[in-house]
């Protein structure tokens, strides 16, 4: 058998990609009144981020343990590596660590310190290693290495969602007085959402976002995913700029940010996750 990789729905890995690499997914939750909608399982309204009383919830220890248990059985005892959304952004990681205690060292839980494809890149790296026959220690190391090589930036067009979310961390002090601000945020080394630049217009914020990605990538080989919340035109434009200017771009995809993240960052948000390739990384 082989090590099985588990992630959560924040990773934004499509069903075809998960099936190809044998990645199991645990849904996060969107709470709309009396409705508890499972991301990736239930039909979540496309305007969910515009609803004022919507919140989100991480996966519970019981939900996570059930997936870990099945994955461990399917691995034939080779083990499970689970890659989850940043512990600074969701309770999912702490629930995962709690659930994993039942299985001892057979289940390894990795804090991606990221979100969206920052989680996805780490899960994919782990799954590729598992597919090649790597040991449990090696698969875990592949996930942690990829997590360290991923960097995430986001431009937020509306501040209402951030005010409600409580996940803005050290950038919170300017939210109360900002007017037409289109902040450029990033996930820091601890996986916290922090302010990178204060910018007044969307066009200038998108330009600054591109420059930050270019600075982070340098001339190294990278994979890039541009995420958005109901803003495909801006995402396409940013993707085109990066395609033209990144000297060693290996891949670039554009995808939605997903309902869980959308609830916190609001409509119009555009983000980029850039993953620096490891030497001798297997092709996808």
UniProtKB/TrEMBL annotation:
GO terms for molecular function: lipid binding. The keyword Coiled coil does not apply. Keywords: Lipid-binding. The keyword Metal-binding does not apply. It holds the Pfam family DegV. PROSITE patterns: DEGV (PS51482). This is DegV domain-containing protein. It comes from Mycolicibacterium goodii.
């Amino acid at each position: 058998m082989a090590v099985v990789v588990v992630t959560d729905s924040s990773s934004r890995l499509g069903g075809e990609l998960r099936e190809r690499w044998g990645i199991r997914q645990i849904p996060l939750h969107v709470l709309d009144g009396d409705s508890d909608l499972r991301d990736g399982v239930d039909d979540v309204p496309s305007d969910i981020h515009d609803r004022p009383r919507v919140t989100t919830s991480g996966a519970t220890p019981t939900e996570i343990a059930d997936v870990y248990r099945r994955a461990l059985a399917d691995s034939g005892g080779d083990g499970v590596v689970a890659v989850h959304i940043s512990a600074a952004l969701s309770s999912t990681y702490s629930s995962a660590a709690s659930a994993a205690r039942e299985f001892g060292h057979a289940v390894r839980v990795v804090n991606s310190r990221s979100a969206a494809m920052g989680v996805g890149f780490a899960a994919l790296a782990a799954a590729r290693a598992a597919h090649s026959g790597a040991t449990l220690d090696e698969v875990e190391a592949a996930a942690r290495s990829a997590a360290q090589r991923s960097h995430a930036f986001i431009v937020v067009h509306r501040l209402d969602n951030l005010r409600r979310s409580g996940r803005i961390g050290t950038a919170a002090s300017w939210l109360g007085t900002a007017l037409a601000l289109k902040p450029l945020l990033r996930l820091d080394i601890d996986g916290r959402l922090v302010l990178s630049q204060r910018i007044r217009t969307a066009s200038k914020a998108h330009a600054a976002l591109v420059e930050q990605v270019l600075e982070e990538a340098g001339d190294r080989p990278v994979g890039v995913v541009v995420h958005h919340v109901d803003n495909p035109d801006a995402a396409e434009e940013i993707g085109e700029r990066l395609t033209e200017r990144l000297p060693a771009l290996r891949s670039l995809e554009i995808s939605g940010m997903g309902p869980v993240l959308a609830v916190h960052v609001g409509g119009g948000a555009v983000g980029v996750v850039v993953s620096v390739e490891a030497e001798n990384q297997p092709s996808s």
